[in-house]
Specification:
1 helix, mainly beta, 8% helix
Length: 64
């Protein structure tokens, strides 16, 4: 798997999307216990106008 892109929705949900070199996708959501597998349907939130992609610095500040 390659490096993940991390996103935050307007409601505050944080999720990351991994894409392999073969095009396979994996989605994980940030929960109080850490990163957990999430429904693949969350991928669509990446393009929502109220969802932002987090910078590397913002990702480092996440409570994980």
């Amino acid at each position: 798997m390659s490096e993940a892109n991390v996103y935050k929705t307007a409601s505050g949900m944080v999720f990351r999307v991994w894409e392999s070199l073969e095009g396979q996708l994996r989605v994980e959501a940030l929960k109080p216990v850490g990163w957990v597998a999430a429904p693949i349907g969350l991928i669509g939130l990446r393009v929502a106008p109220t969802t932002v992609r987090l910078t590397a610095r913002q990702v480092l500040r996440l409570p994980i």
